[in-house]
From TrEMBL:
The active site is at H128, N201. GO terms for molecular function: catalase activity; heme binding; metal ion binding. It holds the Pfam family Catalase-rel. The keyword Heme applies. Its cofactor is heme. Residues 33-43 have a biased composition (Low complexity). It is an enzyme of class 1 (oxidoreductase). This is Catalase. It comes from Massilia forsythiae. It catalyses: 2 H2O2 = O2 + 2 H2O. Heme binds at R125, R165, F214, R411, Y415, R422.
């Protein structure tokens, strides 16, 4: 039976039969979803069998993949052909004049193959080049037609297919996933009224206020142009030079230096639309809105030392995590929340809602949940889907409109424009992943790579020869909100409130837990330690002096510098004082999925108590965790009971940073204690504040690793369990990390 299970392709719908439900699939596995979703569910629980896809969804509810079916290719049982469909007899040898002679120009098969290969690459995205994506659906909690005509929110239980791409910003396409960076969070809704793209980030504010500065920001952050270094990192002079001369960046720096910039997983990040948008209802009434995505998995991050090591151990860490969660049937979910406010409310705020360096505190305007998003299907082909997907902030549908945020206005131009060079022409909307689920009808014609075969002689409007078609939709169609403008000059400039840069930076820093504040200070210290120009370091300190005296003192001390005079402010209006906002802390959202998908290493060696390990393993699996038997080497370890356990991964191939927690099993620890990799493993788990369960003679490894058994303040360490229970371990694992252990510098 076991052999049969191993031979079967991984498939969560078969998981029941093989008792293997929560295991992540084997490397590279991709199941072809075949069971349509249960429909109409409004439950926010993760539904394991809730698989959609294959192009034949019930009630037309998931049409994301249906239009793609036309172009899906499966080579099973098929003969190899050229691009013209000619069957190929020999794909191993080129055509030669004699076995040892020159290759014939005539070999059209060779030339076609090589020519295509030569042109396989397209330009990568100028920002957000590195990304990973998945299909899924959005489901509305109710009927929100009083707020908006946007069809995804029109009725309770209504499902709209989505394709979501997460990304880092600065790194190139092959760069590491765990760089300290902002993450993109771009959602394409395929609605009956066309595609709506909500192209957001995992941070609710941005670096700059006006699109005019974007190329400068990106040039400063990217590898320095003379030597092309560093990759995927802002820890270099040009970024901090720009930052220190741009006080508007200060609020964003707080977020970008916080743990938000090193998420544990794409699944544990919030998402934000960042700009203020408008919602417009059928009566033409407008309200302002900010979009929030909140993960049911909770908000969890890495620690910096861990992020750095993961870059070496698995630079695809986030890509793999998302892929495996979905293949294993653990479909990540986010709740969509709206902050809705009127023009009058906006006018009373101490900041300008058109300024993307400001957020609307939840204390001012609460977040109202309106739906959930479930990602339940991996792409079939990375290039065709994840790489070719083209998001654009200007892709909006009736019921949504822009605000005058000057950053958003600039983006509305940039995204369409960039696709033309990236995807090779103006017809990128015809690439299957970008095509709306509704038929496109207009008089645009021709261009590179045109797919549609438009029939008839009419490609203009007005026409009588085509019966006037396609005709304007009138009130059914998209109409812009008729915002009034009176007595305004055409100017280059910004509103006065845009000039206040420190109130919300202070709000963010002061709303963080002590551990998070320490991480922010340490991130500044790290980044500025890499900066070579002293004046730049000092200017950043002067900027921080406007934020928080404790923060600047800590960073200055870390750099061996004195705290300088605060940077002069643009005007002398007082910095607005905000109430602390606890929801700005990552710890405010532990999540609802417990230990599901958390990776647990069980360290084993010869002499291990096999029965105890099997029981632990099964118990963790039952709760959806991902246990792995980690040993000195691959192969079998002999148990104390005389049978054997299969080591799943070696300490060398699966180092500590790949796991959220560790169990040192009883029996094999003396052997493990002779391997420095096992000692390092345990020390890193400790340093990264992860739960540790040590059983029986596992305590010897703990001693060998010189791990203190109490917290620095002398109290008991609730996530270091020596001969503790599995329940206590699971509780610690559910709360992710215990930062009480942290010292700076680390003691272990
Ligand atoms: Fe982008 N941004 N951006 N950006 N951005 C791009 O579009 C740009 C901004 C964001 O997964 C590019 O298709 C300008 C804010 C995401 O494919 C480009 C400005 C936010 C993605 C571009 C901004 C974002 C992009 C590069 C300032 C958060 C990846 C490739 C005016 C709300 C989407 C592409 C994906 C990608 C321009 C600022 C998020 C060049 C000019 C603010 C998530 O068009």
């Amino acid at each position: 039976e076991k052999q049969l299970a191993a031979a079967m392709p991984y498939n969560p719908t078969k998981a029941g039969e093989y008792g293997d439900a929560a295991r992540t699939p084997s490397e590279g596995a991709h199941n072809q979803p075949s069971t349509p979703a249960a429909t109409g569910s409004t439950s926010t629980e993760i539904v394991m069998s809730d698989k959609v896809g294959n192009g034949q969804p019930p009630n037309g509810e998931n049409r994301t993949t249906a239009p793609l079916d036309r172009v899906r290719v499966d080579a099973g049982n098929q003969v190899l052909t050229t691009n013209q469909g000619v069957p190929i007899a020999d794909n191993q040898n080129s055509l030669k004049i004699g076995l040892r002679g020159p290759t014939a120009m005539e070999d059209f098969i060779l030339r076609e193959k090589i020519t295509h290969f030569d042109h396989e690459r397209i330009p990568e995205r100028v920002v957000h080049a590195r990304g990973s994506a998945a299909h899924g659906f959005f489901e509305s909690y109710g009927d929100y037609t009083d707020l908006t005509r946007a069809v995804p929110l029109a009725e309770k239980g209504k499902r709209t297919p989505v394709f979501v791409r997460f990304s880092t910003v600065a790194g190139e396409r092959g760069s590491t996933d765990t760089a300290r960076d902002v993450r993109g969070f771009a959602v394409k809704f395929y609605t009956e009224q066309g595609n709506w793209d909500l192209v957001g980030n995992n941070i609710p504010v941005f670096f700059i206020q006006d699109a005019m500065k974007f190329p400068d920001l990106v040039h400063a952050a990217k590898p320095e142009p003379h030597h092309g270094m560093p990759q995927a990192a802002t820890a270099h002079d040009t970024f901090w030079d720009f930052a220190s001369l741009s006080p508007e960046i200060t609020h964003m720096l707080m977020w970008a230096m916080s743990d938000r910039a090193i998420p544990r997983s794409y699944r544990t990040m919030q998402g934000f639309g960042v700009h203020t948008f408008r919602l417009i209802n059928a009566q033409g009434e407008s309200r302002f809105v900010k979009f929030h995505w909140t993960p049911l998995q909770g908000t969890h991050s890495l620690v910096w030392d861990e992020a750095v090591r993961i870059s070496g151990a698995d630079s695809d860490f986030h890509r793999r995590d998302l892929w495996e969660a979905i293949e294993g049937g653990n479909f990540p979910q986010w709740e969509l929340g709206l902050q809705i406010f009127t023009e009058e409310q906006a006018a009373s705020f101490p900041f300008d809602i058109l300024d993307s360096t400001k957020l609307v505190p939840e204390e001012l305007v609460p977040v109202t949940p309106v739906g959930r998003m479930v990602l339940d299907r991996n792409p079939d082909n990375f290039f065709a889907e994840t790489e070719q997907v083209a998001f654009c902030t200007a892709h909006i549908i009736p019921g949504i409109d822009f605000s005058n945020d000057p950053l958003l206005q600039g983006r509305n131009h940039s995204y369409l424009d960039t696709q033309i060079s990236r995807l090779g022409g103006a017809n990128f909307h015809e690439i299957p992943i970008n095509t709306p689920i509704v038929q496109i009808q207009n008089n645009q014609r021709d261009g590179m790579h045109r797919q549609a075969i438009a029939r008839g002689r009419v490609s203009y409007e007005p026409n009588s020869l085509g019966g006037g078609c396609p005709f304007q939709a009138g009130r059914m169609g998209f109409t812009s909100f008729p915002e009034a403008f009176n007595n305004v000059d055409k100017v280059r400039g910004k509103p006065e409130l845009f000039a206040e840069h420190y109130g919300q930076a202070r709000l963010f820093y002061q709303s963080q837990s002590p551990a998070e504040q320490t991480h922010i200070a340490n991130a500044f210290r790290f980044e500025l330690s890499r900066v070579q120009t002293l004046a730049v370091r000092q200017r950043v300190l002067a900027q921080l002096a406007n934020v928080d005296a404790g923060l600047v003192a800590k960073v200055a001390e870390g750099l061996g510098l004195d705290v300088p005079e605060a940077l002069p402010r643009v005007n002398d209006t007082p910095i607005p004082a905000y109430e602390p906002s606890p929801s700005l802390s990552l710890l405010a959202r532990p999540g609802q999925t417990g230990i599901r998908t958390r990776r647990v290493a069980i360290l084993v060696a010869n002499g291990v108590d096999g029965d105890a390990v099997r029981a632990l393993y099964a118990d963790l699996l039952k709760d959806g965790a991902v246990p792995r038997l980690v040993g000195n080497m691959l192969g079998k370890v002999k148990t104390s009971g005389g049978d054997a356990l299969d080591v799943e991964i070696s300490l060398e191939a699966g180092p500590s940073v790949m796991y959220d927690a560790v169990i040192v099993a009883d029996g094999g620890a003396d052997l493990l204690a002779r391997n420095a990799q096992a000692i390092d493993f345990l020390r890193e788990q400790y340093r990264h504040c992860k739960p540790i369960l040590v059983l029986g003679n596992g305590a010897n490894l703990l001693t060998k690793a010189m791990i203190p058994q109490t917290l620095p303040d002398g109290s008991a360490d609730p996530s270091l369990l020596v001969d503790g229970t599995l329940d206590a371990f699971k509780e610690a694992l559910a709360s992710h990390r215990s930062f009480d252990r942290e010292t700076d510098p680390p003691m272990v």
